[in-house]
Structures are given as structure tokens and as C-alpha cells.
Amino acid sequence: MQLRFPALIFLFCTALFAVAQDAQISPAHVRVAQGELEGAATGMGPFAFKGVPYAAPPVGDLRWREPRPAEAWTGVRDATKFGPVCMQPESRLMSISRSDMSEDCLYLNVWTPSIKTAQAAPVMVWIHGGSFVSGAGSQASFDGTRLAMRGVVLVTINYRMGVFGYMAHPELTAESPNHTSGNYALLDQIAALRWLRENIAAFGGDPRNVTVFGESAGASSIAYLMASPLARGLFDKAILESPGLLMTPEPELKRDYRGITNMEAVGLAVGPHIADLRALSADAVMEQSYSASKKLFGPGGTGRTRLRAATPLDDPNSVHLAWTPFADGYVISDQLARLYAEGRFIHIPVMAGTNTNEGNLFLTHYHPANADSLNGWVEQAFAPCGKQVLTRYAPPSPAPEQLHAAADRLLSDSLFLYGTFSVARATHGYLYRFSRVSPRAERLGLGSYHSAEIAYVFGHTLNAPDDFTEADRKLSDQMVTMWVHFARTGDPRLMMSSEWTRIGSNGEVPYMDFGDTITPKDFPDTTVQIFSELWPPSGKAPGCGKK
Q1: Strand pairing of 237-241 and 205-215?
Q2: What is the CATH superfamily name and number for domain 30-495?
Q3: How far apart are CA 499 and CA 95, in angstroms?
Q4: For the chain, N or C: smaller number of CB within 10 Å?
Q5: For residues 433, 438, 444 and 445, what is the CA-based torsion angle, rounded to 10 degrees?
Q6: Residues that are catalytic
Q7: Which residues contact 191 (CB under 8 A, 6 or more apart)?
Q8: What is the pLDDT of residues 396-430, one digit of tens each?
Q9: What does the DSSP assignment read for 325-368?
Q10: What is the DSSP string of 270-317?
């Protein structure tokens, strides 16, 4: 008996070890509609599933078509590596090289705290920014581990961009059963959300509690999705961080609107025949689209694009790319400003905000010696209200640092704050402003720059001790808590933010300032009134032009 008892103990412990091993390994396997996936546990606990296809590769004849359903696979698919990122210019800022890119790029990534839970977790879907031409869901800045540790299923997605994501063309319109073309990036995002509604439960997520959130072009995409009938029923809440270009005049499919070149004309400039363009390599298409943009929108060109934050105020020879969402009559039925003004959008809980110094990131090479370049650009870009805009944003002196600060305020207000405020007001949402300046931002002289809040929202202030202080980490903890609480309930408020209320219908505009402290403040809507006069949602002539 003395020999058998230790043997029984050994066998019992071996069985327990096997069960424990199985408990650790088996949750890394999930089954979705297309087949079985094998992910991996992260070093901090949550499980990650990377490079999961949500649509068929948009290659060959599927280039410039609506996304098709992902194909099924046999066996177990490895989901431990990110999929390729979508085609884009190489960028040191994005840390994306040419070898990372492919047209076969419609993949998403999932971080989950647990596969097998008694209660499904709220889902947060991140839509990355990048001026509609760059970025990827696999960027290190968007690692979802820490958010998953807070009890949410975190998803990031790729979507087509640039000429592949937005190009319209008369031949594409003719071959479409919906009599339209372009906005493939938005259709990709809709396809990803539809896939998640059908499959996220396998990862422990609640398909009836999905929050989309994103920054810059990603946040702008969300505003368009909220106004698209094709996206209805696919998400339940929205967080818009520093959306750009919203409520400014945008291109349309076939007609020039307020002088902005229509998107079919831009597509014809890239190439007269779609069959020829589909026969080119992806790199050749990008080169051809850049040459077409330079010819159409460069010096001496006859085209005109919408106002952009990246407009170099001191470089009249700059090429301004045309690739953005637009009113195509199908995905987006009308000018976005008109849709929101008339209440034609998905009515869900919304939180939206901007950073104090949004413009600084786009002005790193802007060092004018005098005010001529600033004044000339403002009068042209904000015509016929350029003089009124200059009066409001006039620098106190012609010193270069004052001119730079004035340009920062103008870009921050016109291309970020105005549209964000308009969405928050239309949706009676929660408005915020991020004003914290980290040690790194202070060293670079950027203030609270565009995208600065991302590290706080994703809990990454712990990753770079030289760039952030204990105060930054505390602020990050509070913001993560609010973002997650909003995803769970539709309300970001906690005891420390109980005075933060939604924008009301009687003109009151409260907002939460995320700075050295978290403080509720009031936002006078006259701050951006000049831009509503310049870009009236009705489409009528600018009001300030009559003064």
C-alpha cells in the first residue's frame, strides 16, 4: 500500500497537470463560420487571435469591388501572426515597410480576456487612422492586451485605403448593380462589423454590445458609418477621437460640389479603362494614381480637393490627394453635414472629442519668416470667408512662433473641433477635449498633438517610462476606465466624472477636459460659429460671404 499510494498521488497529479495544460491550451482554439482558429496567450493573460480573414482577398477581378465573404478553410488556421497591411506609401511614422503590404489585406485581430465565460464581454472595435491612405490594425500602438485585461474583447481591423479604398470611375459605376463606385474602405469596415456580429461570440464577446472607436480618419469613418443605411444594426455605440474633415464640403460621385472635383473625374485621371488598371500591379496603380493627382491637383492643374489638415501652408507645389469618403448615393446618400443636420444617422450613444493642439503634427515643417504665406493660404482655402477667419485667428505678432501657434489653432478648430462638435451636438453625445502634454510631447514642442491620446486610451503609458510620468499613468487609468465603462453601458461617467453630462438641446455644451486634472468645463458654441457660416449644412452660399 505504501508503494501504491505514492503511485496514485503521481497519477492524480499527472491528471491534474494534464487538465491544467488543457485549460491553458484549449481556449486558444475557437471555431468561426469559416473554420477553426488557433491563437495564443499573451504574456499578460489575454488571448490574441491575429490575421483572421473577414472577407475574400480583393485582388484580380475583385479589385475595386464590394468585399466578398471570406472563404472557408480546412484544418486549423494559424492565428498567431498579423496578416499583411493594405497598400499604402511607405511610412516611418507608421513603421510600415513595403514588405508588410499586400492587396490581400482584409484581416482583423482579436484580443479577449477569456473564451469561456459565464457572461459575454462587451466588444470594442478599433478603426485606425492615417489620413485615409495609411495605417493598419496591426500597429503596436493598437495592441489590445491591456484593454482586454479590463474585461472587453478588443478588435482591430484593416481596410483598403487610398486609390484602392476610394477610387470611383464611370466604368466601375456602370458595372455595379448599385450604380455607384468608390467608398470601398467603408464597405470593408461594414463587412468586418457584419463578420463580427456573426462570429464574435466564439471569442467570448457579446454581439449585441459592440462599440466602434477610432482616431483621425478612423473616427471620421465612424461618422460616415453612422450615416450609412448599410451599417444599421452592426454596432451599438461609438467613440470618435479627433475625426478630421467632418462637415466640410466633400466630393460627390458625378458632380462637382462647391468646386470640388467629382470622384469619377479623379478616377478617369488615374486611367481611362478599368480593365487596364486591374491588369497593373498594385505598385504600378499607386504610382499612376500619384502622377494623376500631381497633374490634376498640382500647379496648373484644373482639379480641386477638399480642405485637408495636411495642407502645407508654405508649399504651393504640394500634391493634395483626393482619397476620402464621399457622397456616392449608395453607401453615403448625401453630404454628411446635411445628413447630420436632418437627423439622418444611426441614433446610438456617442462620445467624441479632440486634442488641444491637433494642428501641430501637420505643421512640423512650417516655419514662415512672415505672415504672407499664412494669410494667403487662409484667404484662398477659406474663401469667401478668409478675411473673417483671419480676423478671428490673427496672431498677436508676426513672430514665427506666433504664426505657427495661429496656424495650429486654425487647423485644430476648423478641421477637427468643428466637425467633432457638430457630431456631438447632433447626437447629444458626450464631448471631451484632451489637453495633457506628456514629457515626450513637451520635449518635441508639440503640445497635446493629434493622436496623443491613443497611448492613454490603450493603456500604453506603462510601456515608455521616459515618455510618461506617474501623472500620465494615472490619467491613462482613468481614461481606460471611462472608455470601457462607456463600451459596457453607453455612459462614460463614474463618481469622479459625475458632472460630465451629454450635450443638451437647450444650447448647453458641457465637456470633459482630460489634462493635468479631469475637469468638466463649458464649451461656448460660438468658438466654431465661423465655420458653420462658411460651410452651411444646407449647401447654400456661405453666410459670411455676404457680410
Answers
A1: parallel
A2: Alpha/Beta hydrolase fold, catalytic domain (3.40.50.1820)
A3: 40
A4: N
A5: 50
A6: 216, 358, 450
A7: 54, 55, 67, 106
A8: 888 888 998 999 999 999 999 999 999 999 999 99
A9: --B-SSSS-S-HHHHHHTT-S----EEEEEETBGGGGG-TT---
A10: H-S-HHHHHHS-HHHHHHHHHHHHHHHHSTT----PPP-TT--TT-TT
Q: What is the DSSP letter of 450?
A: T
* Distance from C-alpha of 277 to C-alpha of 270, rounded to nearest angstrom: 9
Instruction: Pick the closest to residue 324 from 252, 422, 417 (CA basis).
Output: 252
Query: Whose grid coordinates read 501657434?
Result: 405
Q: What is the pLDDT of residue 248?
A: 95
d(CA 58, CA 107): 11
The burial of 340, by beta-carbon neighbours within 10 Å (0-12 exposed, 13-18 middle, 19 or more buried), is given as: buried
Q: Are 135 and 217 contacting, i.e. CB atoms less than 8 angstroms apart? A: yes
Please provide the size of the chain in residues. Answer: 547
Which residue is it, cell 460630465?
500
pLDDT value of position 24: 41
Does a cis peptide bond (omega within 30 degrees of 0) precede residue 536? no
Closest by CA to 185, choosing from 58, 9, 41, 352, is 58
Q: For residue 134, what is its C-alpha cell?
A: 495609411
Tens digit of each residue's pLDDT (9 = 90 or more) over 266-323: 999 999 999 999 999 999 999 999 999 999 988 889 999 988 766 555 455 556 678 9
CA–CA distances in Å: residue 321 to residues 129, 291, 418: 16, 10, 22
Distances (CA, A) of 437 to 213, 414, 444, 451, 477: 22, 21, 10, 12, 16
Q: Return the pLDDT at 198.
A: 98
User: Which of 264, 248, 418 has the alpha carbon at shortest distance from 338?
Assistant: 248
| Positions in the chain whose pLDDT score sits under 70 | 1-27, 92-94, 309-320, 365-369, 496, 525, 545-547
d(CA 345, CA 119): 31
Give the phi and the psi of residue 260 in degrees, each rounded to 5: -80, 130
Which is it for strands 510-514 and 518-522: parallel, antiparallel or unpaired?
antiparallel
pLDDT score of 499? 85
Task: Match 491575429 to its residue by C-alpha cell.
Answer: 50
Q: What is the pLDDT of residue 543?
A: 85
Contact assessment for residue 85 and residue 100, using Cβ atoms and an 8 Å cutoff? yes
Q: Where are the alpha helices (DSSP H) in 51-144?
A: none
Give the cell for residue 69: 465573404
Which residue bears the cell 491544467? 20
| pLDDT at residue 264 in the model | 98
C-alpha cell belonging to residue 488: 459596457
Enumerate residues 6+ apart whose C-beta is below 8 A from 468. 438, 439, 440, 455, 461, 462, 476
Q: What is the mean pLDDT of the chain?
A: 90
> CA 346: distance to chain centroid?
18
Contacts of 271 (CB under 8 A, 6+ apart): 277, 288, 292
Under a CB-based contact definition with an 8 Å cutoff, are residues 269 and 184 in contact? no
Directed axis angle between helix 184-199 and helix 217-226, to 10°?
Answer: 80
